Amino acid sequence: MSKTVAVAAGGAVGAMMRYFVGLISTRLFGSDYPWGTVIVNLVGAFLIGFLWGVFEQVNISVNFKNFVLVGIIGSFTTFSTLSLDAFSLFRGGNTQLAFYHIVLTNALGFILVAAGYLLAQRTIKFASI
């Protein structure tokens, strides 16, 4: 399988996952705030950190890494959607909420990437004892 096909296949999976998280979050929390975007960006941040940590320790093919990290996770988390949601909040007069949305997603995203990475590193080391 070529890298391009791996990324495209993963992208299809990630896009569908994102779509379903959006549907479910709207049903659970309503549509007043873009919770679906926050959820996918934060979960995706943790997952990409965790998987990056795992892939550094385990021998995985480049195509599989591209399928998962670039395809699935890259399609699942979309910074452009975060930006669009923030702009929509700003344009609708919710300037403070738009600011909180950007800070919340970015700060927690950074923390969750680090947490996922550290958890993977410790899990791999513990499992190999």
Radius of gyration: 16 Å
The count of β-strands is 0
Q: Total domains, how many?
A: 1
How would you sum up the major sheet?
Answer: none
Annotation keywords:
mainly alpha, 0% strand
Briefly summarize what is shown.
The chain is mostly helical.
Written overview of the protein:
With 129 residues, the protein is an all-alpha fold. The protein has one domain. It is 86% helix and 0% strand. The model has no long low-confidence stretch (mean pLDDT 92).
Task: Produce the secondary structure layout.
Layout: H1 3-29, H2 35-57, H3 62-76, H4 79-91, H5 95-127
